[in-house]
């Protein structure tokens, strides 16, 4: 059943070293505050899963929290590369990073399979692609009915899924809307679920088919307004594109990256203080 | 009106998208071209973005594949698994519109690595939705700037299948879609030869020479016997494209259509 806790308490209690963790979001509702808190608490050896690793995964990888990554597209959306991800893959800094690389269709299917408690997902895919040659977890089976060759890969069953959503009610039901990506599937596939929200309300006032995660699948709700910054929260705030562009410069150089992380994440108590420090830095630069 | 090579690339690509088609749109150049088509000759096109919007009509170009603008202007927004399972694999996509980092003579695409996979010189973002778009869409349009670095004799990695090693290779693998039907660049338009499936230059943009195309292609590129000249963008096409890019720049402080998926 849902507990209402601080993000610090949720991460301390529910995310452990070595866990398989999915912090999902498809350029919308990215759980940035949660990503920072995992870095602050110094988690190690994480097996991260995400369709579209972006800035927070770049920060986690560069901070040495991650040993393995299952993904299908890793980039700074609309800007270019993730330089910390590239440094880890190309030069093994700050440590080796094992990649398990898929396509989007397969990743989405694998979350659905995980949510449905199946061992693997099935799709028509990968024919002619080199991906199965380098990822031995992509395999092929014959359909017992049609003899068609189909691609399979292991279901995703995260120890913990972390998402950001617009609202929770006081019982712990969570409402999200707009571009949903695979957040519902990732939550349903996980053993434990942490949700940061923009606000906690008396009633969700949602129509019957709205995307609601019922409280029985949510372990922790953390009130964190602005928690998806610099991505957007539909109905609350827009993407801060300046941050995405600035990140390209910050992440290019190891020392610049480390100094930035020290000042903005390690030396701040929480995401609210991070936002204050960042605003001061931006003000000084302007 | 005078125009740039980027503009004729976008206009020529937009013209290939038929009105009424269901189009699965990649971010960046494909998104610009698909929306130009929607705002000119193809008002009834249905644009699908992999993040979930179906029937998106963005007023400004999205910065990313999951912008709120896409959700707000769409007929509906579905979860990402539905996009890939019900729409793409379900056989409901007429045209897949893709960009790429590298392409070979059979229109196979590399968006994964430059150099060896385990020790890459450049780690690219990866597959995204492209492998299944390339195999499942009824046909595929590719828009990419042409340089000798992007048009290579041999890909270090085949992320998404074009015509593989040519001929009937796709049919032998039982790929559902017919694969790339045109590659539109800032220099020319290429189409696969009907038999060998090797990309052949069928149209040069005005002012572009065969020598320029040859120099920007990493294999001995073939030219069609009936080599044409790409019709220049009309004033209307240019006005609509420039207005779209101006609205985008005002909204985002950038022209949009950048990298990213």
Give the total of beta strands of chain A: 13
Please list the strands of the largest sheet of chain B in the order they lie side by side. 2-1-5-10-11-12-13-14
Q: Helices and strands of chain B: which structural class? A: alpha/beta
Number of domains of chain A: 2
CATH class of chain B: Alpha Beta
Protein model, in words:
The complex is a heterodimer of chains A (286) and B (261). By secondary structure, chain A is an alpha/beta fold. Chain A folds into two domains: 3-41 and 157-281, Glutaconate Coenzyme A-transferase (3-Layer(aba) Sandwich); 104-154, no CATH class. Helix content of chain A is 34%, strand content 23%. In chain A, strands 1, 2, 3, 4, 5, 9, 10, 11, 12 and 13 form a ten-stranded mixed sheet that branches. In chain A, strands 6-8-7 form a three-stranded antiparallel sheet. In chain A, helix 2 links the parallel strand 2 (20-23) and strand 3. In chain A, helix 2 packs parallel to helix 3, helix 3 (55-62) packs across helix 4 and helix 5 packs across helix 7 (183-189). Chain B has 261 residues and is an alpha/beta fold. Helices cover 28% and strands 20% of the residues of chain B. Chain B is built from eight helices and 14 strands. In chain B, the strands form four sheets. Chain B has an eight-stranded mixed sheet, with helices on both faces. A two-stranded antiparallel ribbon of chain B has the order 3-4. In chain B, helix 1 packs across helix 2 (29-39). The longest helix of chain B has 18 residues, at 235-252. The chains are: A alpha/beta (286), B alpha/beta (261).
Chart the SSEs and their pairings.
The complex is a heterodimer of chains A (286) and B (261).
Chain A: E1 3-4, H1 7-14, E2 20-23, H2 32-40, E3 46-50, H3 55-62, E4 66-71, H4 83-91, E5 98-101, H5 104-115, E6 120-123, H6 131-134, E7 139-142, E8 149-154, E9 160-169, E10 174-176, H7 183-189, E11 192-201, E12 211-213, E13 220-223, H8 241-252, H9 254-266, H10 271-285
Chain B: H1 5-15, E1 22-25, H2 29-39, E2 46-49, E3 53-54, H3 68-73, E4 76-77, H4 80-88, E5 95-98, E6 102-103, E7 109-110, E8 113-114, E9 122-123, H5 130-136, E10 139-143, H6 169-172, E11 180-184, E12 188-192, E13 199-204, H7 210-215, E14 222-229, H8 235-252
Parallel strand pairs in B: 1-2, 1-5, 5-10, 10-11, 13-14
Antiparallel strand pairs in B: 3-4, 6-7, 8-9, 11-12, 12-13
Helix pairs in contact in B: 1-2
